[in-house]
Amino acid sequence: MCASEFAPLAKTGGLGDVTAALSAYLHRSGHDVRVLLPFYSSIKTDELNIYPVDFMQGVEVSLGAHSFRCDFYVTALPKDGTPVYLLHCPALYHRAGIYTGGADEHLRFIMLNRMVFEMCQRMGWAPDILHCNDWHTALVPLYQKAVYDWDTLFSRSRSLFSIHNIGYQGTVGTSAISELGLAGKESLLHQQDFASGQINFMRTGILYADVVATVSPTYAREIQTAEYGMGMEEILRARDSSTIGILNGVDYDDWSPQADSLIPRNYDIDDIEGKEVNKQVLMREMGLEYRPGVPLIGLVARLTGQKGLDLVAEVIPALLKRRDFSFVALGSGEGRYADFFSELQRRFPGRVCFYSGYNNKLAHMIEAGADMFLMPSAYEPCGLNQMYSLKYGTIPIVRKTGGLADSVQLFDPSSGTGTGIVFRDYNNEGLWWAIDAALTLYQDKDAWSTMMANAMAMDFSWDKQGAEYVRLYRAMLRSKN
Ligand code: ADP
Ligand code: GLC
After folding, report:
1. Is the pLDDT of residue 222 over 70?
2. Less packed terminus of the chain by CB within 10 Å, N or C?
3. Which of 11, 17, 373 to mutate to test the pocket of ligand 1 (most atoms within 8 A of CB)?
4. Nearest-CA neighbor of 423 among 441, 440, 436?
5. In contact, 215 and 165? CB cutoff 8 Å
6. Closest ligand (CA of 13)
7. The pLDDT value given to residue 183
8. Taking the model in full, what pTM does it have?
9. What percentage of the chain exceeds 90 in pLDDT?
């Protein structure tokens, strides 16, 4: 399993949650899973026992004109024992954050892709499945087929490329070609991209992986269209028979109101008053005025256009004037959205609070303390927060796209079925309707309790979703030539 993120060591969003929880599932099911992750200087090491792997020290690697020295370390996650190999290369990974957006970003991840093979060779160990994730590890399938094809160690290995977000493709100018180290096989790169001066990591992964997966069935279909494919639609259509959508799971040890150690009071469906306690503590700590019967809407997100924040900026200020509710937002990312939320807090003191930054404890407290969770995404490959919200009885207000469409069902008061509020069209009217409907429904105590009970009963555990991956891995191994 290789990826740029792996929770809790390195996480900016759901990618880290998913690589960690799937690996943990595989590990506890008895599979031999070994994770490779850059040893970012931001990884907190105090609670980890980290050992150098003695036969994997001082590995010299040249990427084009650049030479690096790498050392491998290994640790077992305290929580579940999953083995994680850490790729130590200070020249590349001792930076302020996981991602830098800098001119050598591609080098940082080319190295990771190459080291998958260098590590396995040194261990004399070939995985059945090379599972790579997003553009940062999308070169693994090509490297297997073009650079390490001489090594029979890997002849039985199959590659799976998981797309968590097609919005980040990893592109670099063709002048970086020598840094890829393709050993005379450069013509395997997508020629049209190349002609237009680009190397696109994501497209390379889609082209060469034995199987392409994405994180929900609906997103698997959506990215084959021009509306959602971001230029990858054609090649994804061409690979349709080797593409699959598997909905992400949730790690309920971390994310359930019964077990969560980061919230003031644990609760469950039979002890729902506990939720109100969480709401009071959250509102007090965030400087919001608690008034019984007035709903609190929460939002936790990377602040980017993907999350529907342009609609939020258009709709929430007007709604705050028209209806009685409070709003708490947590996020980091683009300044224009942070500015919007800061301004909103200033305009509606006591009713709106914005925490700018990354704060895991607060994310848990919002899931537990809010009545509703807002996720009006423009696109959403899977989305985890809406699934967390369901378990916490925090009614998700979502747009019908990607994994949101696959995990939240519109509540129907006449039949009492459904788990949240779902709107279809990405426009102000759609979002207005959805929030307005949620606020109205909140006043109908019976309907609201039914919807909460339906939501909390949903089960997206990794025991279910992980089994789907194992079925896929096995099918991949059966189909090998
Ligand atoms: P994405 O991967 O697109 O960011 P997901 O819904 O799949 O969206 O996952 C987001 C994950 O990141 C969740 O675990 C969420 O709690 C977490 N998260 C996002 N922003 C923050 C933040 N500012 N502070 C703490 N956790 C955050
Ligand atoms: C991405 C997507 C999100 C998904 C996560 C984990 O960052 O934006 O929808 O849940 O990856 O797969």
Report:
1. yes
2. C
3. 17
4. 436
5. no
6. 1
7. 85
8. 0.97
9. 99
pLDDT in tens, 164-200: 999 999 999 999 999 999 989 999 999 999 999 999 9
Tokens representing 158 are: 């199959």
Q: Provide residues with CB under 6 Å of ligand 2.
A: 13-15, 18, 164-165, 215, 248, 380-384, 403
pLDDT class of 250 with cuts at 50, 70, 90: very high
The CATH class given to the 273-459 domain equals alpha beta
Domain residue extents for the chain:
14-249+463-480, 273-459
> Looking at the predicted structure, is the pLDDT value of residue 479 above 90?
no
Cα of 42 to ligand 1 centre, how many Å? 18
Q: Tell me which of 215, 380, 404 to substitute to probe ligand 2's pocket, judged by most ligand atoms within 8 Å of the beta carbon.
A: 215
Q: Which atom of ligand 2 is nearest to the CA of 15?
A: 6
* Residue of 133, 263, 302 to mutate, ligand 1, most atoms within 8 A of C-beta: 302
For 224, the token pair is 């084959």
Structure tokens at 37: 């992750």
Q: Same CATH topology for 14-249+463-480 and 273-459? A: yes
Pocket of ligand 1 (CB under 6 A): 13-15, 17, 300-302, 330-332, 358-360, 363, 382-385
For residues 43 and 174, is the Cβ–Cβ distance under 8 A?
Answer: no
> 382 C-alpha vs ligand 1 centroid, how far in Å?
12
Q: What is the pLDDT of residues 129-173, one digit of tens each?
A: 999 999 999 999 999 999 999 999 999 999 999 999 999 999 999
Residue 200 Cα to ligand 1 middle (Å): 26
Q: Assign a CATH topology to domain 14-249+463-480.
A: Rossmann fold (3.40.50)
Burial of 227 (0-12, 13-18, 19+ CB in 10 A): exposed
Nearest ligand atom owner, CA of 404: 2
